[in-house]
Amino acid sequence: MANHKCVDYSLYLVTDSSLVPSNATLLGQIEKALLGGVTLVQLREKEMDTGPFIELGKKVKALTQKHQVPLIINDRLDVALAIDADGVHIGQDDMPLVEARKILGHDKIIGVSCNNEEEAKKAVEEGADYLGIGAVWFTSTKSLKKQPLGVSGVRRILESIDGYNGYSVAIGGINLNNAKELMVGGSTKGSTCTLNGLAIVSAIIGASDPKDVCEKFTSILKESTKSLHQADRNTVDAILTHCSKAIKNVMTATPMVHHITNNVVINDNANATLAVGASPIMSTNRVEMEELAKMNGAMVLNMGTLNDIDTMILAAQANNRYGNPVVLDPVGGGATTFRKAVVQRFINEARMTIIKGNGGEILSMANRGGRSRGVDSLGNVDEQTAVLAVKELAQKHQCIVAMTGPIDYVSDGVRTYAIHNGDPILACITGSGCMVTSIVACFAAANRSDYLLATMIGILTVNIASELAMQRQEVRGPGTFRSALIDELYNITHKSPDALLQFANIRYIS
Ligand SMILES: Nc1ncnc2c1ncn2[C@@H]1O[C@H](COP(=O)(O)OP(=O)(O)OP(=O)(O)O)[C@@H](O)[C@H]1O
Ligand SMILES: Cc1ncsc1CCO
């Protein structure tokens, strides 16, 4: 598995050979479930001896590999290591997470079962990649020692770990009749406390037609996501309520943000990154790209003064492999034939998490016109065109797209917002857009569960900092503004994170 931080946890199959119908086999049930859309498989064999477990594990791995789905082994690190599985799932009575991590390292997934807030908080602190929250309901697969959590219990646990960068799935008694109730009710409206998926045992493994059941679960999961977004529709609370937490996450994680950026803005961008509590490194030598990606929180690819394009791609690919968000700033993207071709190479050869450009750059990428003079956008962009461009690009490249300008537009392909903050003087200093990209990368690094949120808060931070900077007495023009902007980035993040909540002027479009 290339990238364990980008695993799709939505339909998680947990096996139990004792539940396989008499006319079927475990491997057959798993294969059918994979054909039906299962996104992750956990092999759970509580009674099996080590040798047969490894043999079975190898066969299951062949199936999951064929369907490009990760394989997790329940409890047994030795088996996981022997078959080079993608990770392990540990219960509260199994090997402690800290010890398991020492053995497996950071390239493997470790999931932890949690039944209450304390267990969840501990697992988060110790660096669990995902939490299995349960049991939600009474279940035939395990005799429960504790009361089941119910939907509200799941929600309570998720709220207690608000801001957690990993993933959460619910488990226990989930079937086609209660899945939607759990997905929608388990998540807090307008919040990052959302379930990423459902871990299902008997409803799939004991089914007469696992493929059909999985297809039904997949459409329930899609419907649930839609109705969760629906719930956010008339509100911008989803963004605002998380501003201070998102800022705190950056300050706590102090993520390293690797920039390959242009040599006009390099110093300003490094200072801006430091000002919000992250740690910049502006390296361009290909020899260390892989090693940097290993410790990196996020990566900025900025096309301002293009030099070694192959190294930029190599670095983006390495960051993709380690699951780090990659933020592309297609500076001057539409201005020359050469730049247009480079943007295409970046998109084709690496996966972008967020694309942030000005009107000329984004419209050019979306083939909707877009006029530039060098790195500057020309002309006004009407709202309808802007919204179509960011939405279409986000859908096409499965990423977040932000178009900056007097009004900024941000979309994940489903939700689109406008940001009305920012002082026009930003357009009078070089690299203010590049600075936005750097700050978005800092937020993305530390707020991985919602990159739309991270992008919105990154842009808001720079824009509101610009408004506060312009209110300072000593600011008399672009030169003094430039220093004051860095000061205000620092002040907002270190002293008054509530400034975002107070001054944000954002609009939900559709
Ligand atoms: N007229 C304006 N009023 C308010 N804010 C603005 C205005 N123009 C730009 N901004 C803000 O300035 C920042 C940079 O946006 P812009 O689109 O100018 O970037 P850019 O062209 O990519 O910049 P650069 O290439 O110099 O880095 C954004 O945060 C945007 O919201
Ligand atoms: C002026 C300029 N030229 C290339 S990059 C850059 C900085 C703003 O994008």
TrEMBL record:
Cofactor dependence: Mg(2+)
Signal peptide bounds: none
Keyword DNA repair: no
Pathway connected to this protein: Cofactor biosynthesis; thiamine diphosphate biosynthesis; thiamine phosphate from 4-amino-2-methyl-5-diphosphomethylpyrimidine and 4-methyl-5-(2-phosphoethyl)-thiazole: step 1/1; Cofactor biosynthesis; thiamine diphosphate biosynthesis; 4-methyl-5-(2-phosphoethyl)-thiazole from 5-(2-hydroxyethyl)-4-methylthiazole: step 1/1
Residue ranges of the TM segments: none
GO BP term (any one): thiamine diphosphate biosynthetic process
Protein name: Hydroxyethylthiazole kinase family-domain-containing protein
